[in-house]
């Protein structure tokens, strides 16, 4: 009986659940938050919880930054912000290629032949004045094989070369 009476005494001294919930707590706001976190996540320390919040914040920031960067890069065209106007492609009996005159501003007249020089260029433009005037060609826009043996005026962009004296990325061709 004495053991039972001891239990009753201990139980009587402990506050009931309703009393604890209604009792005013005289602690600071930060301590209340920490206590709330400790009860919600009893196995984690407040420092760990704060660190997880920081890590999630960094992830969200990086995702937003990535989406924003992708949007801005999608608006850039040729180093300038595009105004929504994209270069068009023209194909007629005499002219084939891009209408983008800012990119393809160099031009030359001659007869197109197959093969470049030492791996530079897929074709060559034989011009008047001899072999020193030959322009070697590649094209990111036009199939140059369709114009082999034909005299053309080619517009393009000069690109760096190691072997060829003149290497041009052809964007537009006009039959002569």
Indicate the CATH topology of the largest domain: OB fold (Dihydrolipoamide Acetyltransferase, E2P)
Oligomer: single chain
Strand order within the widest beta sheet: 5-6-7-9-8
CATH architecture verdict of the largest domain: Beta Barrel
* Tally of discrete structural domains: 2
Unreliable spans are: 1-9
What percentage of the residues does DSSP assign to strands (E)? 25-35%
Net shape: elongated
Number of helices: 4
Class from secondary-structure proportions: alpha+beta
User: What is the CATH domain class of the largest domain?
Assistant: Mainly Beta
DSSP helix fraction: 25-40%
- What is the terminal separation in angstroms? 119 Å
* Average pLDDT metric: 77
The H-and-E topology, N to C, reads as: HHHHEEEEEEEEE
Structural notes for this entry:
With 176 residues, this protein is α+β, with helices and mostly antiparallel strands. Helix content is 34%, strand content 26%. It has two domains: 2-74, no CATH class; 89-175, Beta Barrel (OB fold (Dihydrolipoamide Acetyltransferase, E2P)), CATH 2.40.50. The chain has four helices and nine strands. Strand 8 and strand 9 (167-175) form a beta hairpin. Mean pLDDT is 77; it is low at 1-9.
Descriptors for this entry?
single chain; alpha+beta; OB fold (Dihydrolipoamide Acetyltransferase, E2P); 2 domains; five-stranded mixed beta barrel; two-stranded antiparallel sheet; 4 helices; disordered N terminus
Short description, anyone?
With 176 residues, the protein is of the alpha+beta class. The protein has 4 helices and 9 strands, in the order H-H-H-H-E-E-E-E-E-E-E-E-E.
